[in-house]
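Researcher: Go.
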Amino acid sequence: MTTDTGHFELTRTFPLTPDRLWHVLTDAEMRGTWNAPGEGMVMTLQTSDFRVGGLETHHSGPADAPEFTVDTRWYRIDGPHDAAFTETVNMGEGAIATTLVSYRITPESAGSKLNVAVAVSSFAGPDADGEFRAGWEAGLANLEALAAKMTA
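Model: Structure:
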């Protein structure tokens, strides 16, 4: 099977200062509260080493049987402005996809603008690009709801 690739960018505005948004984006436990893509899904932190070269591991999937292991490796950390990291999604003993993700945060009058750029390399077929995009869109919707609660 060949490696299928794709790329997408998403932009959202949040009612949080760049520092507060940075914390919610980069704190491993905070990511677990907003990054699970759907109802009944979980993202549970196993290990966290937030530094350039550091590795974090989450288990994710349905709450009753999280079947994926996600390894996040940090390559650039320049808070509260930008970050770059890879996420490798494993199922069983093998990787099914790796993404390169970049965050860019810019101040906005009412908070912050976030641009997320994602490059996808799928080792399990051509549908992964759309699945990752849907997952990031759902995660950012969860982040919008969390940000609204944080400012209420």
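Model: The domain at 4-151 is CATH 3.30.530.20 (Alpha-D-Glucose-1,6-Bisphosphate; Chain A, domain 4).
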